[in-house]
């Protein structure tokens, strides 16, 4: 079992930065691929970024490439998402997710492949 708690959301002006953090409990954190997803009102949940179990491999949605950075600290059971140059279209509820099935990699972008989810943190970007 993995329990996830996100923090760090808030209101930021366009062009600004936010850093999201996800704290995980449970002994299986290092064996899980960690991902960030987001969901805006009226839209489906979409992939943002993922990081491999070791942290050596990362994957980003095109929307965040060059602006977002995902990282993890297996000693502290945390995964972070640094978001720079934020745009109004980045506004959404951001969710941390963990996938521990053996076939999941950092390239796994489907939400239903991740079976542990946090409660989400709101990111609002003003124009």
Write the layout of secondary structure elements.
Layout lengths: L2 E5 L2 E4 L4 E8 L7 E7 L6 E6 L6 E3 L7 E6 L4 E6 L8 E8 L16 E2 L3 E6 L1
Parallel strand pairs: 2-11
Antiparallel strand pairs: 1-3, 3-8, 4-5, 4-9, 5-6, 7-8, 9-10, 9-11
Can you walk through the features of this model?
The strands form 2 sheets. Strands 2, 4, 5, 6, 9, 10 and 11 form a 7-stranded mixed β-sheet that branches. The protein has a 4-stranded antiparallel β-sheet with strand order 1-3-8-7, with no helix packed on it. It has strands at residues 3-7, 10-13, 18-25, 33-39, 46-51, 58-60, 68-73, 78-83, 92-99, 116-117, 121-126. The radius of gyration is 13 Å and the shape is globular. It has no helices and 11 strands. The model has no long low-confidence stretch (mean pLDDT 96). Helix content is 0%, strand content 48%. A hairpin with a 6-residue loop joins strand 5 and strand 6. By secondary structure, it is mainly beta. It starts with a strand and ends with a strand.
Distance linking N and C termini = 40 Å
Biggest sheet: strands, sense, closure? Answer: 7 strands, mixed
What share of the residues lie within helices? under 10%
Number of helices: 0
Number of strands: 11
Strand pairing plus helix content: what structural class?
A: mainly beta
Shape category:
globular
Strand residue percentage: over 45%
- What would you report as the Rg, rounded to the nearest angstrom? 13 Å
Uncertain parts: none
* Helix-strand pattern: EEEEEEEEEEE
Overall average residue pLDDT? 96
């Amino acid at each position: 079992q993995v329990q996830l708690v996100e923090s760090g959301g808030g209101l930021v002006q366009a062009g600004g930065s936010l850093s999201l953090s996800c704290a995980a409990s449970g002994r299986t954190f290092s064996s899980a691929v960690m991902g960030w997803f987001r969901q805006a009102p009226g839209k489906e949940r979409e992939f943002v970024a993922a990081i491999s179990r070791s942290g050596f491999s990362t994957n980003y949605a095109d929307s965040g490439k060059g602006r977002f950075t995902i990282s993890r600290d297996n000693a502290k059971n945390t995964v972070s998402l640094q978001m720079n140059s934020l745009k109004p279209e980045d506004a959404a509820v951001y969710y941390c997710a963990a996938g521990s099935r053996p076939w999941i990699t950092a390239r796994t972008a489907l939400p239903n492949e991740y079976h542990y989810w946090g409660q989400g943190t709101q990111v609002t970007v003003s124009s």
